[in-house]
Design goal:
The chain contains 27 helices and eight strands. It has 458 residues and is an alpha/beta fold. The protein folds into four domains: 88 residues, Fumarate Reductase Iron-sulfur Protein, Chain B, domain 2, CATH 1.10.1060; 58 residues, no CATH class; 117 residues, Rossmann fold, CATH 3.40.50; 123 residues, Rossmann fold (3-Layer(aba) Sandwich). It starts with a helix and ends in a 6-residue tail after the last helix. Its EC number is 1.1.99.14.
């Protein structure tokens, strides 16, 4: 009898274990289909900047996806450890280029960061610093006000004195990084937008936030080149920030609101193409359809807007050149901005444009797929890691023996210029590639170009 009872107990099925609730909340959690695309092969490891620096599995795309998977299955909490490894990611998307399985890592890290911002608290100092960044950088009018004391700081000689006595060395690392990355503040930011009598195409141009205040020469060069190639250029005056910094930092709601304002501004302009000369902005604007996918009033408009967005190098390669390129005798190194080559897949077009300039010699930089450390505001939030990557990039740059370095993103230009200054090479200029193309069309020689336009700290 006892044996029969024991047997019956042994064969009585136990209650099914209820599935664990996800650690993520219900609003846009990382999707299972994107998580499951990763087969953990490891091809992403040598492409990932933080894994290259530290060799830590949890600071690789594969490791981060594993952590995201465990959190999605309720087997890992959203805690400080989780936050640390996600914060360490630059969001450069080099893993997407390297991945043979087509993992859309951007659709994992960005919603994960939004989850973190809602569900993991940050310390008071961290919250204040981040609020300072996001209350300033996306607002051109605020940047213009800030530019006044910054210009005085630079022109008065105070900056030279501050650096000479070593004050940045005793500042907190983030403040020191802000001081080091400060671009040369221009005297004024106005420029004329020439338009041809019979335009080949009507294009809208993104003015940018940091770009329009601190790099007006890049916008001016962009407008001139487009006009020289027969485009009517419209720059909507009411265009806001594109929201890229917010998307990359997990501020999804704020990014969505800015996206709606941007879409409305360019819809009013009624343009054929939206031209972007900042790689980080471009990668975000091309994803507006995904960002606003659940909004019935904006999803279709966002998708139509995103389809019009193109990098300046893409649109110029689509148009048959009509402006004469004059010789520009100099050797330059071209640095691929991560959000151009990895997030947008634009790598060949900038090189084709540069190859069309007579006597311009273009050198390739070793480890071209590896981030320079800029990555939006990563070099302000994680200055130590960014500095290591910047120094590595500068070493590879110097090996090219170039006279100047080119890129297609203002953040990269600042990061490279600061890295060169740290090596005592402040005289080596960093240009946006459109500045070089503009110089060739205008017939400006290399010496005049270097004297006429410079980017980065001096």
């Amino acid at each position: 009898m006892a044996d029969t009872a024991a047997t019956n107990v042994a064969h009585t099925p136990s209650p099914a274990t209820p599935p664990r609730a996800s650690s993520f909340d219900a609003h846009h959690p990382p999707q299972k289909e994107h998580i499951d695309d990763c087969v953990h092969c490891g091809f992403c490891l040598p492409a990932c900047p933080t894994y290259v620096l530290w060799g830590e599995e949890m600071d690789s795309p594969r490791g981060r996806i594993y952590m995201i998977k465990k959190a999605a299955e309720g087997e890992a909490p959203l805690d400080k450890r989780f936050q640390l490894h996600m914060d360490n990611c630059l969001g450069c998307m080099a893993c997407m280029t390297a991945c043979p399985s087509g993992v859309e890592y951007n659709k994992l890290i960005e919603p994960t960061r939004a989850q973190m911002e809602r569900n993991i608290s940050r310390g008071l100092g961290e919250r204040i610093f981040r609020k300072l960044i996001f209350a300033t950088f996306p607002y051109p009018n605020r940047l213009r006000i800030l530019a006044v004391p910054l210009r005085l700081y630079q022109r008065s000689g105070l900056r030279a004195l501050v650096r000479a006595v070593g004050i940045p060395k005793v500042l907190p690392s983030r403040l020191a990084a802000m001081e080091a990355l400060l671009p040369e503040v221009p005297e004024h930011a106005s420029y004329h937008v020439p338009n041809p009598a019979k335009p080949r195409r009507k294009v809208g141009m993104l003015a940018g936030c940091v770009q329009r205040v601190f790099f007006p020469q890049v916008n001016a060069a962009t407008a001139r080149v487009l006009a020289a190639e027969g485009c009517e250029v419209i720059i909507p005056p009411d265009q806001p920030c594109c929201g890229a910094l917010m998307v990359h930092s997990g501020l999804e709601a704020e990014a969505a609101e800015l996206a709606k304002k941007m879409i409305a501004a360019f819809e009013s302009a009624n343009v054929d193409t939206i031209v972007i000369n900042s790689a980080g902005c471009g990668s975000t604007m091309e994803e507006y359809g995904y960002l606003l996918r659940d909004d019935p009033d904006w999803a279709e408009r966002a998708a139509a807007f995103a389809a019009k967005c193109k990098d300046i190098s893409e649109i110029l390669c689509e148009l048959e050149p009509q402006a004469t390129r004059h010789a520009l005798k100099m050797r330059v190194a071209y640095h691929d901005a991560c959000h151009l080559q990895h997030a947008q897949g634009v790598r060949e077009q900038p090189r084709r444009l540069l190859a069309g300039i007579p006597e311009l010699e273009v050198a390739e930089i070793a480890e071209s797929s590896l981030c320079c450390g800029s990555a939006g505001v990563y070099n302000l939030l994680e200055p130590e890691a960014a500095a290591q990557l910047g120094a590595r990039k500068v070493e590879n740059l110097l090996a090219t023996r170039a006279q100047a370095v080119l890129s297609a993103n203002p953040g990269c230009l600042l990061q490279l210029a600061n890295g060169l200054r740290q090596r005592g090479l402040a005289a080596m200029p960093a240009f946006h590639l459109v500045e070089v193309l503009d110089a060739s069309i205008r017939g400006v020689d290399a010496e005049a170009l270097i004297g006429e336009t410079r980017s980065g700290p001096q």
